[in-house]
Amino acid sequence: MPVRPRLKPISVVRRPSEVILVGRALEATYLDDADGSVTALLQVLSRGEHTVAELPDAMRGHGFEVTEAEMAGAVEALDEVGVLLRADADAGLDPATRRRHESNLRFYDLFAGLDRSAVDYHRDMAAADVLLLGAGGMGSGVLQALVGLGVGRVRLVDFDVVEEKNLARQFAYGRDDIGRRKVEAARDWVARYSPGTTVVEAVDERITDVADLRRLGAGASLVICAIDSPNDVHLLVNEACFALGVPYIAAGLQYSTMFYWSVEPGVSACRLCLELDREDESGGIPELLDRSVVLPAGRVNRATGPIAQLLAGYVTLEAGRYLTRTDPPVAAAVYHTVELADGMRTTRAEWARNPRCPLCAGAEEAR
C-alpha cells in the first residue's frame, strides 16, 4: 500500500524567503522558500491525506505546478531531516493497544520516519525479553517503567523479602506485601497494574557466579543489573553478557553519587576494561598502593524514593535505546554521575578498550 507521508507536529516558522522547521529543542532546519511552495507543501503534508503520487494535484490546489518526481524528491529530503511520519502507521495496532500505549507511540514519533514507524518501535519493545537482577529500590522502579513501556517479558531475580522500610522507595509493594518474597509480590503487582502487557517470571534466587547469570540470561535481549552483591557482581555480569552476546546496564548509589553506565559486548569497551584502566593508573602512583583503610565505608542505603525513581528512569531510558534502537545508547562505556549533595552536578566520563582485556580482544578477533 502506498505510503501517505504526514508532517510531524512541529513548529513551522515562515520568513520572507525561507521556512524554519523546529522540532527537537536543539534542532532547526532552514529551507529556502522564496515562492511559498515549500510552505504550501508543508501545509498539505500536515494533513497526511495524500500519497506522493497524489501530491501534485494537492499542490495544484495551492497554485503550484509540480511533478511527481519533484514531490518524491521533496518528501525524501524532508524524511531525511526527520520531520515526516507514515500517516496511517497506528492502524497496524488494535484499538485497545493504541489507547494503552498512546504516549509511548507519540514518544517513538520523535525517532520515526517513513521507513520505520512508532508502531515498529513498540513491537520491538513488546518482543523484548529482559533479565532484571534485583527487585529493590531501583529494580522495582525499572520493572514498573518497563511494564509501562510494554516490554514483553521480564525475568525478575531477587532473594529478598519485603520489609516495612522498603515502602519508602519501592512502590511496587504495599503493607500487605510485608514478609512476602519480593519477586512474587512484584509479579503480582504487574498482573494487577497492566494485565496482558508483560509476562514476569519470578526467580527467587541469589546470584553467586557467572554460571548463574548465563543460565538465567539465556535468550535475553538485555540484562539490567540492579544489585550490588556479590562485591564483583559487575564483572560477573560483564563476563556473562559477553558469553551471551547481549548488552547490559548497571547503576547504583555510592554515598551521595548516583551513577549508571552500560556495555555492548563487542561494540563498546567493557567493564573489565575500566577495571584494568584503574589498575594501570594506580600502578603508576605508589602512594595509592601504600594506603591502608583505617575505617571501611559502611553499607548505608540512602536511596530515597525520588533517588530510586531517578535512577530507574535513567536506566529504563537506556534500556529503551537498546531494545528499540531509537537512537544510540548514551551510556555505552560512558560513566554518568549525578552528585546529589553537590547541586545535582552531572558528569560523564568515557573509557576506552584496554589492550589487556581478554574479552574485548576475543570479540575483536571473532568479528
TrEMBL record:
Pfam families assigned: ThiF
Organism: Krasilnikovia cinnamomea
InterPro entries per record: ThiF/MoeB/HesA, ThiF_NAD_FAD-bd, Ubiquitin-activating_enz
Keyword Nucleotidyltransferase: yes
Domain THIF-type NAD/FAD binding fold: 123-358
GO molecular function, one term: thiosulfate-cyanide sulfurtransferase activity
Keywords tagged on the record: Nucleotidyltransferase, Transferase
SUPFAM superfamilies for this protein: Activating enzymes of the ubiquitin-like proteins
The UniProt record lists the keyword Transferase: yes
Recorded GO CC terms: cytoplasm
The protein's name: Molybdopterin/thiamine biosynthesis adenylyltransferase
PANTHER family: ADENYLYLTRANSFERASE AND SULFURTRANSFERASE MOCS3 (PTHR10953:SF102), UBIQUITIN-ACTIVATING ENZYME E1 (PTHR10953)
